């Protein structure tokens, strides 16, 4: 099968998200200029550089009360900071709850019953029990083609790792089984790893 996106795919559901998988989930916490906290998951998320460490996430839809974008991007525009919380398999249900289209004054931490703590290097809340959290300062927001497509880039200024996720000095993902986004309404998780040495090593 071949199709051009502008012509449509002719399938019951768009296969694009099912092709580009699995995708890590950035559980983005932000704080509004008014001090209100927000938490929302984004599956267009990844690390993009080592030194200095940098990450990105993309927001691809809008809310009526946010002038062409969503709460996360709007808050980051105002404050210049955000935190990326890593999602464990055990947190799948509360993560999903925070994906709802709630009003801008909703604190998703409180709504989903998620414990929060203050970040160390930025004025923002983080998911207290997340396996890891990356504290970030905004470097740039890039608008992509499309009505509400924005990519947010940030430099990591602080890293939290849960002690039980460190095994022999390594951050061991099998201790918490990170959640990954697939296509449609589907998810997966990591429960096994293997290593490959690069040819030059």
UniProtKB/TrEMBL annotation:
InterPro entries: Flavin_Rdtase-like_dom, Split_barrel_FMN-bd. This is NADH-FMN oxidoreductase RutF, flavin reductase (DIM6/NTAB) family. GO terms for molecular function: FMN binding; oxidoreductase activity, acting on the CH-NH group of donors, NAD or NADP as acceptor. It comes from the Bacteria. Residues 18-173 form the Flavin reductase like domain.
């Amino acid at each position: 099968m071949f199709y051009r996106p502008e012509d449509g795919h002719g399938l019951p559901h768009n296969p694009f998200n099912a092709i580009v998988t699995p995708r890590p989930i950035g559980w983005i916490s932000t704080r509004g200029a008014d001090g209100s906290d927000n938490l929302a998951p984004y599956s267009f998320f990844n690390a993009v550089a080592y030194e200095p460490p940098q990450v990105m996430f993309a927001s691809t839809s809008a809310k009526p009360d946010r002038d062409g974008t969503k709460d996360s991007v709007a808050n980051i525009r105002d404050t210049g900071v955000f935190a990326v919380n890593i999602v464990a398999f055990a947190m799948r249900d509360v993560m999903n709850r925070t994906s709802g289209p709630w009003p801008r004054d909703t604190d998703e931490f409180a709504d989903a019953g998620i414990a929060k703590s203050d970040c160390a290097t930025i004025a923002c809340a983080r998911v207290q029990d997340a396996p890891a959290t990356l504290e970030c300062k905004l470097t740039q927001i890039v608008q992509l083609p499309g009505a509400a497509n924005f990519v947010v880039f940030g430099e990591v200024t602080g890293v939290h790792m849960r002690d039980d996720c460190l095994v022999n000095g390594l951050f061991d993902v099998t201790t918490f089984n990170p959640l990954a986004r697939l296509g449609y309404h589907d998810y997966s998780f990591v429960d096994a790893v293997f290593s490959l040495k690069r040819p030059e090593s």
